[in-house]
Design goal:
The protein is an all-alpha fold. Helix content is 68%, strand content 2%. The protein is built from 15 helices and 2 strands. Strands 1-2 form a two-stranded antiparallel ribbon. A hairpin with a 6-residue loop joins strand 1 and strand 2.
Length: 305
């Protein structure tokens, strides 16, 4: 176990040998880093592409994207704040709270502010759409607060991703009253992708999580089984989004389905040395990216319900 030194900031600790930082001197960039900006940006970008595919206008599209961005940041800040002591014990130099770069109070305030902003932004997309998105964010917060430690850790990802298309199609009712809930196949594809993302997201830190007592479903299954689950779920999502829409399968759909099948077979078959590294994680990300492309290509069917 790494040697740690206590700082003066709410009992936070900094690993010995880490670059010394005066508590709270990280500023805006430090707080932003604590909000998991890369995953938040990824989900927000996917939302923007899907909003454009649905045909949302500039105002409705911008409002929906802003609501998702606020919700994602609130989730990331909540996650890092709750995990601070565990990240300290694991000597996580990539976590601003663990190194003392930012104060816990600043991250708590940022999480609350982002959550408070998310609610009116979501409701500005229409009552039904707004409450659907608030439900997505509530599911993610339930993961941070409780479910990440249980065998049901996958459930918030399934719910939140599965309802994302509905948030956008219901937002489109602001300008197109005939729009409504998305097709069942699209909801299923998004839910499968989200569940796959849960297993993939756990891979880089799975050993540290197990040591720290975080025993969600991926940690209980282990690295190899989680790689296989992530790959299989991503491929299932690609299959649904390729075969689900009415009409013949497009050439792009066939090509992407072939690519995802190859990645799905290759990821679990990685040698032990590679399986312990980031290679399977990156392959699952490639699967998810291909799936996201298929979702966007299928965007013209989103408002069919």
């Amino acid at each position: 176990m790494p040697i740690i030194m206590t700082t003066a900031d709410e009992g936070a600790t900094v690993p010995a040998g880490a670059t010394a930082r005066r508590p709270g001197r990280g500023g805006f960039l430090g707080v932003l880093k604590a909000g998991h900006p890369v995953p938040a940006a990824g989900v927000t970008l996917l939302t923007a592409l899907l909003a454009a595919a649905v045909g949302l206008g500039p105002v409705a599209g911008t409002t929906a994207v802003a609501a998702v961005a606020a919700g994602q940041l609130s989730i990331g800040w909540c996650n890092d704040r709750l995990d601070m002591r565990r990240d300290v014990a694991a000597a996580r130099l990539d976590k601003p709270l663990a190194t003392g770069e930012v104060r816990p109070g600043a991250v708590t305030a940022a999480a609350c502010a982002a959550l408070l902003a998310c609610v009116p932004l979501s409701l500005a997309c229409g009552a039904r759409a707004g409450w659907v998105h608030v439900g997505c964010v509530a599911a993610a917060w339930s993961y941070n607060l409780w479910l990440k430690h249980t065998p049901a850790s996958w459930l918030p990802y399934t719910v939140a991703f599965g309802l994302l298309p509905a948030f956008l199609t219901l937002t489109s009712t602001l300008t197109s009253p005939s729009a409504g809930w998305p097709p069942v196949w699209l909801t299923a594809a998004a839910a499968l992708l989200g569940t796959s993302a849960h297993f993939a997201n756990a891979l880089p830190d799975i050993d540290e999580d197990i040591a720290g007592g975080v025993l969600g479903l991926p940690q209980r299954l282990g690295r190899r089984a989680s790689i296989a689950m992530a790959a299989a779920l991503a491929f299932a999502s690609c299959t649904v989004v390729t075969l689900g829409p009415p009409g013949p399968v497009t050439l792009a759909g066939r090509l992407l389905l072939g690519v995802t099948l190859a990645l799905c077979l290759a990821a679990p078959a990685a040698p032990p040395a590679l399986a312990r590294g980031r290679m399977p994680f990156l392959m699952i990300l490639a699967l998810a990216a291909a799936d996201a492309v298929l979702l966007v290509l299928a965007g013209h069917t989103l408002a069919v319900g």
